[in-house]
Amino acid sequence: MFKKFKFLGLTAALLLALLLAACGGGENTDDSSDNADNGNAEESSGVELGESELEIPYVAWAGALARTPLVQQVLEEVGYTVETTQVEAGAMWSSVANDDASFMTASWLPATHQSYWEQYQDDVEVAGEFVAQAPLALTVPSYMEDVNSIEDLKGNEELGEATEWQIIGIDPGAGIMQNTQTALEEYGLENWTLTSSSEAAMLSELQTKIENEEPIIVPLWKPHWAFAEMDLKMLEDPNEVYGGAGDRIEAIAHKSFKEDSPAAYEVIQRLTEDYNTEMENELLVAINGGAEPADAAAQFLEDNPDLLEKWTKDLGE
């Protein structure tokens, strides 16, 4: 009789253990399901916005006018509020270095903005590269056949008198203006004077001179719509005052930007991977044709929905 009850006790214990195991298995299954659901929720939300109000300073140079609204509109598509402010080159660099602005789209390194980089490099970092090689040089109309190098300007009385010994420049804070001043010293061009104005004023003067086939010398760079619209040539620069093959055009951000606004940083990384000279030229030609920079950017994104999708996928809230 004792053995019978013992057997029944063991059987009951075994059944109880099986029941508990079954219940435990159900709980594990539910946990896995919950974890899977949580994982899908995290994946769908993507990289978070972080600080959602961004400030982009820019200088009214042709390329910056093309790139800045494009980046702005992609960021707004993700969910950011973006303000852009036109400034001079020095203020563009200092505002990013001081973390008063998020990032900029118009750094020219290593030559043109070398002095700014040396001053602010401890506080900023490269967030992406728009153009790998962007040459800068003194530039003249191609009909000036006897002028092919900066060295040809030295002691050139005929050209000097025809141009009043002036090189027509842009805004005084621009790196290319600093390089041009250095070129005057490096090549012994004591008689020549660099005149400050603005890019728009310089280009207007250049177009007028070309219409009359008169000589003119200006500092210019590529990519720029002027080379598509006018027959120009860059002067040789044996001393490589302007950086030789060309500068890199990069996005420069404050060192806290990646942590502060992760999705915005990722947008810049993705966009600059695809951005190239051809894209910039497309935007520049549209703007020079009369389109507002913001409209040119919007049209580009409308014409390239695959790029917009690539640049924004799984980002934001």
Automatic annotation (TrEMBL):
InterPro entries: ABC_Gly_betaine_transp_sub-bd. Residues 35-48 have a biased composition (Low complexity). It holds the Pfam family OpuAC. This is Glycine betaine ABC transporter substrate-binding protein. Its main location: membrane. Residues 28-48 are annotated as: Disordered. Keywords: Cell membrane, Membrane, Signal, Transport. Residues 1-21 form the signal peptide. Residues 54-302 form the ABC-type glycine betaine transport system substrate-binding domain. CDD domains: PBP2_OpuAC_like. It comes from Salinibacillus aidingensis. It is found in: Cell membrane.
